[in-house]
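REQUEST
  id: r-88c1
  op: predict_structure
  target: MftR C-terminal domain-containing protein
  payload:
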Amino acid sequence: MTTTGEHVALAGELAALVERRVVDPLEILFGDGDPVGPVRERLRIEAEVWAAQLLGPDERTAVRAAARLIAALYPGDGPFDPPDAWWGTAFGRAVARRAGHPGRDAVSFATAGAMLGITRQGVHDLVRRAKLDRHPDGGVTTRSIQERLNRPQERHAARHDHH
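RESPONSE
  id: r-88c1
  status: 200
  body:
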């Protein structure tokens, strides 16, 4: 269950991110006046919708929304591989819960820690106690991270304790 605060933080972050990465460059390209005013107005509405989709009960809708936003906001020729700090953002936390790490079956212990909001040592402890699954090729499975984040009784605890 998500809170109103989580929704507000995510919607605000998404609006700011889209404005910075998409709308501001359009304004620079289009020049004088307010050529993107209507886009800014629509963005505020869409950010609320995207936040509701990412945090809502429909997993397929959430994963599709995450994929669309990542594709639009982080285009590139290679796979999406954000820095560990990204997972601490409202958008990063929502993606981790709903989609795991897009395109990766396993991540390093450091990235797992970032996704869970704990230290790398905390991840080692969870793997040792069989609370997270080690991937055969090394690291931690993204599925086990996602499952841990989606356990209602542990999701908030994982953000506050150090393992």
